[in-house]
Specification:
The protein is built from five helices and eight strands, in the order ββααβββαβαββα. With about 200 residues, it is of the alpha+beta class.
Length: about 200
Amino acid sequence: MTWLKPVTLQDSAVALAPLSHTHRDALVDAVRDGELWKLWYTAIPTPDGMAAEIDRRLGLAEKGTMLPFTVIDKANGDRPVGMTTYMNVDAANKRVEIGSTWYRKSVQRSALNTRAKLMLLAHAFEELGCIAVEFRTHFFNHQSRKAIERLGAKQDGILRNHQVAPNGTLRDTVVYSILPAEWPTVKAHLRHRLNLSGDQPA
């Protein structure tokens, strides 16, 4: 894997650190906040399944199709509060999807997600030279869809009967993307949401 390499992304309040088994216990605590694995329209690891999910993500990282991160809340004791990834990596065409993201309930709808997405998008466009960054979510995951749209991503379409969910239902997947020409406006929008001036670091 030469194009996408493990990296730590951070600002003054949030760090995205390479996923590690050393984060397991803290991530188990995080996923219990809100019992997130009970949401039927998304796939979030159970406490007992956290080690296996870390193994799965690290296995995909070895194959070059994912770059997984642990999301760390620096403003509250450097505690891991969730996971996120670059996934479905297409190195030849320099495309990534930002996904497989979850946060403990107590930090959802906070500035933490905006900060994390700003860092991931900046790295994708400004360091990796991506030609597109995708976001995908379940049709019925309205919270996720609204969050993606608030970032400034545009809806590309809906993949109908895209996947069979663990509960046997058929998933319609909504696909969004941001393109390089759109990134300066999206970046300014996200920095405005964080009340950051043009020369002020995050």
